[in-house]
Amino acid sequence: MALQELKVNKLRTFLSLFGVTIGIFCIIGVLALVDSLQHKVESDMNQLGSNMVQVGKWEFLNTNDYPWWKFINRPEVKYSEYLFLKQNTTDADAMYYLNNTNALLQYKDNTYNANVYGTSDEFSRIQTIDIDAGRYITENEFNRGMAVCVIGNEVATQLFKDPFLAVGQQISVKGNKVTVIGVVKKQGQMINIFQFDQSIIEPYHYFASIYNAEKLSPQIFVQSKPGISNKAMINELRGLMRQVRRLSPKQDDNFALNDINLFRDQIDSLFSVLNTSGWAIAGLSLLVGGFGIANIMFVTVRERRSQIGLKKALGAKNKTILTEFLIESAFLCVIGGLIGLILVWLLTLILSNFIPFPIFIAGRIIVLAFSICLFLGVLSGIIPASVAAKLNPVVAIRSN
């Protein structure tokens, strides 16, 4: 009977379901987009390592309104400071020194502009680097500053066409020959700080022999030991950095200690705001949709008064009539929700070609959306259904 009503009154049904469709579209769309983005960001943040602290010149989150000109006047972290921290810290499990720049790579007639990372030996202990061909840089090669490198999948593809042909070949980096010893497994589109597909990794000492390394955004990443909190490690690192820089008790810190976990908390807060905004927009649409469903159900009750009267005359109880109209109201809302779901699915197919991370619709979001549809359908239809259930059969039959 509900399907028949949809077919007979197409325009009325469309206008009534439109609000529900938009509301569910907003809920599923926003939750799916935020979930996918949050999953991607957390996945990429995890590549920085757990329980991480970054030592550098700039603060990720300037919560104290520190003047920007003071940041600029801060000295860059030095490799000697990295060695001091490594030798004296007791709370750190691993740490590495990192510089990066861009350079034009060349192999025969093929060129590629890549990110160049110059790093110390414990880089792979903290970062996840999956080697697809060849091997990673050894500790001896790091210590001796040998002219070897590991390149990303896209770099290998552009220079050698086949990544497996890259191992053992020499490429030119800023006019210097470097031997490729490994190729990193393809990552795909990433939004984290390490774009390994488009990068080349070199031992720090070799990197520093070519570039002015301490001018190229040097950073120290420190991972705490199991059971050691980031707060405790930050306190130790602050004391060591003040010691190595010979700062008096009256002088402010001229370095930044960035807790990656706090950065994650800020990201979670941002996603919470996005979710709340999505619910607010969806709530307005669902409110309009609920009134639309209630309106169509009132009209349906009025049009079928004689049928209701006949059913009650044949013995149908009030709860039977009530249940019939509640099911019909819920069914209408579910149809609106299903249309909204289809629209979101089509949107994900379109957006997948333009954004750097996959969008997925989690099962819990679909269950939540259709639970809302059922609840909204029952809530919107309860008054019309109650009116229908309380009709006097004789009066109802004579209504036409």
Task: Chart the SSEs and their pairings.
Layout: H1 2-8, H2 10-46, E1 52-56, H3 68-73, H4 79-88, E2 92-107, E3 110-119, H5 123-126, E4 131-134, H6 139-144, E5 148-151, H7 153-160, E6 170-173, E7 176-184, E8 199-203, H8 204-210, E9 219-224, H9 230-244, E10 256-259, H10 260-303, H11 305-313, H12 318-351, H13 363-389, H14 393-397
Parallel strand pairs: 3-8, 5-7
Antiparallel strand pairs: 1-9, 1-10, 2-3, 2-6, 2-9, 4-7, 5-8, 6-7
Helix pairs in contact: 1-2, 2-10, 2-12, 2-13, 4-9, 10-12, 10-13, 12-13
Pfam family, one: FtsX
GO molecular function: transmembrane transporter activity
Keywords: Cell membrane, Membrane, Transmembrane, Transmembrane helix
Overall mean pLDDT stands at 83
- Number of H/I helices: 14
Q: What is the 3D shape?
A: elongated
Number of strands: 10
Uncertain parts: none
Through-space gap between termini: 19 Å
Chain oligomer state: single chain
Order of helices and strands: HHEHHEEHEHEHEEEHEHEHHHHH
Over the alpha carbons, how many angstroms does the gyration radius reach?
A: 32 Å
Relative strand content: 15-25%
The residue fraction in helices comes out at 40-55%
> How does the helix and strand content classify structurally?
alpha+beta
Total number of distinct structural domains: 2
* Sequence of strands across the biggest β-sheet: 2-3-8-5-7-6
Strand count, sense and barrel status of the largest sheet are: 6 strands, mixed, barrel
